[in-house]
């Protein structure tokens, strides 16, 4: 039998003190600081753009952005990008859906697919020591997609659910409607599948869109938590047969109005005009400063804001309401305006007072307001960069849209270079442009567009 007196607390405490009093052994080790690597960019011979940033984080994040958003859909395949996003992780040429899912789960790897109006973005988050094994499933998941009919039918219910969920959210419905009114086709195509197209995206249509839009010269690979040389090596494994045949059609702004009546005590209205695209960083940043000057949603949960738009709306009604300035920037176009939701009987005075408030900026902007707007843009940008997933996706978008990547200091310098005259110039261009209006809900007191111009 073992002697257990040593386990007695009476003897254990003195022994711990004696051990702690001994000098720590000299191992000769020294602390070293890992070197961080700022944003770097390389364009490979196959056309793919590689952007990377090494932050020495234990999690490596990879984002592949492809120019395969809903703006590239045509009338006969509307909603195909919504279906393509749901095909992420299905059986491919190298692994079954079960093999891909189970192996990534065992390694603790997360893969997501996001479809926007311009891009399809595949993002992977993985522990550094599992990166090599995870790439064996991540790359075929994108490059070797196979669209089997029985698997397509399996996720049809998921698409029905997502469409039904979207239709129950008036703030999203009014946003999609605004884009349709403003751009009609291209950027006007919804990121959701139309009701009449659910179940009509078969193997042939998905394969056709995949082969026509997925090519290395339409891609950008971004990594955070990896050195640039490793990112370039990974990019060389993304290979596609053939070349993209999809046409790049310039965006045309239309403008107009659309109203959707629904049984509801509330009304949701968006009014916007054509604005700067991302190809003009100076104008797009000036629009961002103007947006912050007018005011967005409260940054604190259940908080309030004393923005210009909020103050104007509060004078028009004592009932609850929500208001925010809108600013959407795409590669070659944008939308700038406002969104307001409130009681149906208050909508006429709310919309008219907000139109007057936005229109007033063309008469000139105050330098103090511009400085406040610039500070808010910087704060929003830096807080967004704290999110690892958002930062790697933003890196991929910059590489694809600009052909270069900006670090925080460069973006700060660009924002600092914005002058009141820059903001005033973009304000005049927006307010003098042709407006677009979308309204959803109880529209009994919602004015028509020609009544508020």
UniProtKB/TrEMBL annotation:
<dbReference type="GO" id="GO:0046872">
    <property type="term" value="F:metal ion binding"/>
</dbReference>
<dbReference type="Pfam" id="PF00675">
    <property type="entry name" value="Peptidase_M16"/>
</dbReference>
<keyword id="KW-0496">Mitochondrion</keyword>
<feature type="domain" description="Peptidase M16 C-terminal">
    <location>
        <begin position="204"/>
        <end position="375"/>
    </location>
</feature>
<keyword id="KW-0809">Transit peptide</keyword>
<feature type="domain" description="Peptidase M16 N-terminal">
    <location>
        <begin position="50"/>
        <end position="195"/>
    </location>
</feature>
<protein>
    <recommendedName>
        <fullName>Peptidase M16 N-terminal domain-containing protein</fullName>
    </recommendedName>
</protein>
<dbReference type="GO" id="GO:0005739">
    <property type="term" value="C:mitochondrion"/>
</dbReference>
<dbReference type="InterPro" id="IPR011765">
    <property type="entry name" value="Pept_M16_N"/>
</dbReference>
<dbReference type="InterPro" id="IPR011249">
    <property type="entry name" value="Metalloenz_LuxS/M16"/>
</dbReference>
<dbReference type="InterPro" id="IPR007863">
    <property type="entry name" value="Peptidase_M16_C"/>
</dbReference>
<dbReference type="InterPro" id="IPR050361">
    <property type="entry name" value="MPP/UQCRC_Complex"/>
</dbReference>
<dbReference type="Pfam" id="PF05193">
    <property type="entry name" value="Peptidase_M16_C"/>
</dbReference>
<dbReference type="GO" id="GO:0016020">
    <property type="term" value="C:membrane"/>
</dbReference>
